[in-house]
Design a protein that fits this description.
Number of helices: 9
Shape: globular
Number of domains: 2
CATH topology of the largest domain: FAD/NAD(P)-binding domain
Strand content: 25-35%
Radius of gyration: 22 Å
Number of strands: 22
Low-confidence stretches: none
CATH class of the largest domain: Alpha Beta
Structural class: alpha+beta
Largest sheet: 8 strands, mixed
Helix content: 25-40%
Distance between the termini: 32 Å
Length: 440
């Protein structure tokens, strides 16, 4: 087993893949560089999971319009659009058609709500898995070594040595792209390498599930992006063959907690007539400056406590009446569909979610029901919590997300992106920096 590589990429999600493809077989002329007869670098792509992971695995919904997915602290509009063009040229997505947006936009504007028109592609979870297979095979064909099931444990940034659960690896350049699930891992690495960072922003919300007939906009616009007052927005809509899923966060030392998420299969699977989407509020902790991750963990563990170790779900009909949901709340009459994540605990979200956050979410729900009437049917379910941890803000020493000599950070976990296409773009931007240092 090789223990030296020119470049090591940790994380096989879209940021890691973007960096790897940007480094191997790159057309240097297109980015203003000239190759001087040097061989392709040796590259290791490493992931702790036994399968290639990241956002491509769940639903594989991709957005190709600024500013979706691009934190403005890291990107200008011109930068984002230039890299988006390269991502789109590589992935060759089929852009979904949108219809009747004027109707919904006019309703939204009257209420002070914005509906963004975004160019989108949707492969579904099964289509995403097929794409991962094609991409990893192509990457191996370019000479990359892909190793799954090997976990990075620590880093000696000065000696340029990373330690895994199986060996020590020396490198020239290291790209850390662990994604949202690696938020805490990345913080540990940055602490050990003395890289300053801020972690004071987090998105907290619910995942809403209802019948498609009560949210018919999805027939015209697959993933509608609504921006509400109080820093609240819709996110990650799934329909046709859509399901709510559970994700585990945390570590054995600090305890585990759960967040819900959503995914959908492609049109090759039978439709179930349901739709789900996230409604999220952005929370910025400023005075005193505090850890968004610690705040999210506290809320997640509190929800797990009240849910008996599981997320909480509540019917809108019960929520409006100010009472908790029980198992019998999910049967018969007005409650006319079964939850797709039945392992959640029927309960009272109001006992767990902070009032200011819950009020903002409920205000967004009421506004959305005025734009798309029918959403607040008594049977509609709110699952709590849905938490997005991608707000690390490392200090970078150049425009290519370099935080130390030979060390680059990319993707959602590093705060350089919020989604598949922007993560891929951030990986490409890192690759450009490495190539520039090598060939310029």
């Amino acid at each position: 087993m090789n223990n030296y590589y020119d470049i090591v990429v940790v994380g096989s999600g879209p940021a890691g893949l973007g960096a790897a493809f940007g480094l191997l077989g790159a057309d240097l002329a297109k980015i203003g560089l000239a190759k001087v007869g040097r061989p392709e670098p040796s590259l290791l792509l490493l992931d702790k999971n036994e399968v290639s992971s990241g956002g491509l695995r769940n639903d594989c919904k991709m957005n190709f319009s600024w500013p979706i997915g691009f934190p403005e602290a890291c990107w200008t509009k011109d930068q984002a659009e230039a890299y988006l063009g390269r991502v789109e040229a590589f992935l060759s997505p089929v852009i979904l058609e949108k219809r009747n947006l004027d109707l919904y936009s006019k309703r939204a504007e009257k209420l002070g709500v914005s509906l963004l028109s975004i160019r989108q592609s949707h492969l579904g979870t099964d289509g995403g898995l097929e794409l991962i297979g094609r991409l990893t095979a192509k990457l191996k064909g370019l000479g990359a070594e892909l190793v799954l099931g090997e976990k990075m444990l620590s880093l000696d940034a000065k000696k340029k040595i990373l330690i895994t659960d199986k060996r020590e690896i020396q490198y020239r350049d290291l790209v850390l792209a662990p994604g949202r699930g690696g938020f805490a891992f990345l913080q540990g690495i940055m602490n050990g390498a003395d890289i300053p960072y801020r972690d004071n922003v987090v998105d907290i919300g619910v995942r809403v599930e209802t019948k498609e007939e009560r949210y018919p906009i999805v027939k015209d616009y697959y993933d509608p992006k609504f921006l509400f007052p109080k820093k609240t927005r819709t996110f990650c809509t799934n329909s046709r063959s859509a399901y709510v899923v559970q994700e585990r966060y945390g570590e054995p030392e600090t305890g585990y907690w759960y967040s819900v998420n959503g995914h959908a299969w492609s049109t090759s699977r039978p439709a179930n007539g349901l739709v789900n989407f996230a409604l999220l509020k952005t929370v910025t902790l400023t005075a005193p400056l505090a850890s968004g991750q610690a705040f999210a963990r506290m809320l997640g563990m509190q929800a797990a406590l009240l849910g008996g170790g599981r997320p909480i779900m509540q019917r809108i009909g019960d929520f409006k009446l100010g009472k908790r949901s029980f198992s019998e709340s999910f049967l018969g009459d007005l409650y006319d569909f079964e939850p797709t994540l039945p392992s959640c605990t029927p309960g009272d979200i109001g006992l767990s979610a902070p009032a200011k956050i819950l009020n903002a979410l409920w205000n967004g729900m009421k506004l959305l029901d005025s734009i798309v009437p029918g959403l607040l049917h008594p049977s509609t379910i709110m699952y709590y919590p849905e938490i997005k941890l991608y707000a690390n803000r490392p200090a970078y020493i150049d425009g290519h997300f370099r935080s130390a000599e030979g060390l680059y950070l990319a993707g959602d976990g590093a705060g350089t992106s919020r989604g598949i296409t922007a993560a891929w773009a951030s990986g490409l931007r890192v690759a450009d920096g490495i190539l520039e240092a090598r060939f310029a």
